[in-house]
Design brief:
Layout (H helix, E strand, L loop, with lengths): L4 H12 L8 E5 L1 H4 L3 E5 L1 H8 L6 H17 L6 E3 L2 H4 L6 H12 L7 E6 L6 E6 L4 E5 L10 H8 L2
Parallel strand pairs: 3-4
Antiparallel strand pairs: 1-2, 4-5, 5-6
Helix pairs in contact: 1-3, 6-7
Length: 161
């Protein structure tokens, strides 16, 4: 698959410019994306890891979700899909009960038919949970073909709702 030209340009900038390692790209993630407004930043190494198909962190996933939200907004369908901040639910983000409360609070701000994308990293790789609160249904999507077992911690976060 060919990378978008904007990503190629960004990677060339990071690779060819003498960018100090502490130089950041700052982003504001609007309240409508995750339910609260927050500022975040991406480091040059985050961009090269993303472009190189290396392991990425929650910040990169969150910024990408902001981009997806912008696309949904342009298509006038953002009311159909909501996002849960991956930094609030992934491993090492507090107790399972705390993470369940954060997810429940986010789901309460829905009209009922909206689905929520919830990237989750149990510590090994990213999986995607798609939550349909009104139907009390959660889909676990794991990109690794050998992982056919639902991560127990992710399951406990959802069951705690």
């Amino acid at each position: 698959m060919e990378a978008p030209s904007s990503l190629k340009t960004l990677c060339r900038y990071v690779e060819t410019t003498l960018v100090p390692q502490d130089k950041t790209l700052n982003f504001t993630i609007d309240k409508e994306v995750f339910g609260l407004e927050r500022d975040t930043f991406v480091l040059p190494e985050d961009i090269t890891q993303f472009a190189g198909m290396e392991e990425i962190g929650a910040t990169v996933v969150a910024v990408y979700m902001r981009y997806l939200h912008d696309l949904l907004k342009q298509a006038n369908i953002c009311s159909m899909v909501g996002f849960i901040d991956p930094a609030t639910v992934s491993a090492n983000s507090g107790t399972i009960a705390d993470r369940s409360r954060l997810v429940a609070a986010r789901l309460q701000k829905t009209d009922g038919e909206q689905i929520f994308m919830m990237p989750y990293n149990p510590g090994r790789h990213w999986i995607l949970l798609i939550v349909r609160a009104k139907r009390e249904t959660v889909y676990f999507l794991d990109p690794l073909p050998r992982n056919r077992v639902v991560d127990e911690e992710g399951k406990n976060i959802v069951n705690g709702l």
